[in-house]
Structure formats: C-alpha cells, structure tokens
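Lab manual, section 2.4: Encoding a predicted structure.

Procedure: take the sequence of the chain (206 residues), apply the prediction step described in section 2.3, and record the output as structure tokens. A sample record is shown.
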Amino acid sequence: MFAAGRRIPAGRLIPVFRRRTQEAPENPPEVVKPGGKGRPTPKRSEAQRKRLQPITAPPANRKEAYRKMREKQAAERVKMREGMARGEERYLLKRDKGPVRRLARDYVDSRRTIASYLMYILFAIIAVSLLPIPAAQIFGLFAPPLLLAVVFVEGFMISSGVKRLAAAKYPDENLKGVGLYAALRAMQIRRLRQPRPQVQVGQKPS
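Recorded output:
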C-alpha cells in the first residue's frame, strides 16, 4: 500500500485507481497547421503531371477565335523572317535556296565592293556638283557614268568568279542565274542584305 517510513505531504492525494486509456480512434483527425493551406499536400508526381498538362481554353466567340488566329499567324511570320535572316534553308525563298546560292552569298559577303557604296557615292557627287564652281559641275557631270562603268566591271568580275568557283565545287548543280544573283547582291548595302551575311569581310567562304 504505502512505503514504510514515507510521509505524504498534507493536501496531496494519490489516486489509487486510474481510468482505462481510451482506445485511439481508427481515423485520427488531420491536424491543420495555423496559416496552412487547409488541404493535404499533393504528391510530387501528381503536381508534375498537372504542370505538364497544357492549359488551352476554347475561344469564347468568333471574334476571339479570329484574334488568336491573327496572333498565331503573326508569330509564324516573325519566326519565318528570323529564320530567313539566319539563312536557314527551310525559310529561304526559292531564289536563295541551294548550296550554289549560299556559296554565291558567302563569296560576295567576304569582300568589300564599290557597288555596295554606290548610293553614298552618288549623293556625294550630287552634293559636290551643287557647288558654284565650274570644276565641281564638270565633275558632277562625268563622275556618275564613270562610277556606273566601274560598278559594271566589278559586277562582271564577281559574276565570273562565282561561276568558276561554283562549277569547281558543285559540278552537278544547276548554275543558271548564279552570276547575276551574286552581282545584284554585291550592289546591296551590307547591313541590309537578306539573308544576313554569314561570313566576315576577308574570310574565305567555306
């Protein structure tokens, strides 16, 4: 009962019998942390599967469908322009496709041409010819034909060089029009050429 010689403090009661421990419930209630979401955290696989599912809502009306169609077409046009500027074969126009045309572009882009500065030179000639000096007026009269003759000779040389190089490298390809193609590209300002130059000035075309 009580240990011998042990004194019990006054006012303290020692329970003799205890109630049986209540059986734990089969489904204990979920404990929700203060400030929590109030729902169980989903598994990682379920969360990833939900993130991978595309969220596509059908258009509400015909106007919304037309707007989405225009946005899609505009994005495709931007993609085509960027691909054409980079020289990607599938986005090029028919006149620019093929290894021969690529070789012609690289041949022209690897050198500086007088024809690419034609517009700037002509503006300078016109500005000089407006001076009230007889020599300047004579210069403005004879300089343009001389400049055009130089551009013609340069274009002929570029055309011949491209044809000769393409015939040696691609003997089985169609070379029709490649010389004129190269000569016309040589007349364009370098930064405005499409497709954009893929080689630096002085670099040997591959």
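Check your result against the sample. The chain has a mean pLDDT of 80.
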